[in-house]
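call fold(seq) -> tokens
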Amino acid sequence: MIAAVQFRNFKALRSTGVKLAPFNLVLGPNGSGKTSVIQALLRLRTLAALPASAEPPPDTGGPRIDFAFAAPYQEIGVSLGCSADEMVCNVLTVNRPPGAAGEALWEELRARLRTIRAYLFDHYAMAAPGKTEERYELVSNGGNLAAVLLHWRDHQPAAFAALQAEFVRQMPEFGGLDLRDGAAGTVELGGRLKVNGHEFIAAENLSQGTLYLLAMLVLVFSPAPPAVVCLEEADRGMHPRTLREVRDALYRLSYPRDAGMERAPVQVIATTHSPYLLDQFREHPEEVILASKQGPAATLERLSDRADIMELMKETHLGDLWYTGILGGVPGE
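ret:
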């Protein structure tokens, strides 16, 4: 949905921009702007819920973020004006086609923008019993995972069954998931082992990676997913040998029809520091965005825009090219 984003004087992103694909893996050193991209999208979401300005404010050269969109919203441009002192974007300017048709198109787009979500999972929060009256959309740290799964089991059985089947396929030591009533209106999540009489393993005793996998599968199999999902540290807690499964799970969000799913695609922006996850995108360098930093300024570059990338990949693994610094986007440049 979001075709491109351009930054000016926004934190480390002084003068750079990048085109966005349906799926985007963003990598680079700390402080190179990966999280700033996600913060810009979240600010766009927030301001899209408020009245927009028809006239741009005077251009003082301060921080600014410009967004372009894919069809059918390609005639709409959105700019965020930011305070230079506090680096807070608080002015939304919309350039749209005139008349009722342009207004209707903007209203449709802003409704989608308000569904942008960002996640950085916390396994301690996810392991805690969930309150059954909590909202049934996964929160940013995954802390209501048990409540979401309980709601799915009772009200979205097809989605719950699909998630459980994929979980068991990837974690074959388990026979399924279990949700049990806890104290004071809570629900406790756990897994049932295939052996030992289907022993119940409570969420607090599940591994970090197991809980992250469950949260990721909630995003993948959600009956009504967001238009855009931002996932920080997509490989967090995962063994390198499982990263192809992580990639394929996230691909189901962006390319649902390839997985036999009948729903709208979800645009994904995922960050990583893992050369092993990067290796999974050897055949798709157009989905990789490299963040590089020179002094205080950072730039964003789509890997497929490099003229030498195909030749370089003939010599070694893509992850090794990045890790050794050949591609750039590493600390100490």
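The two ends are 33 Å apart (CA to CA).
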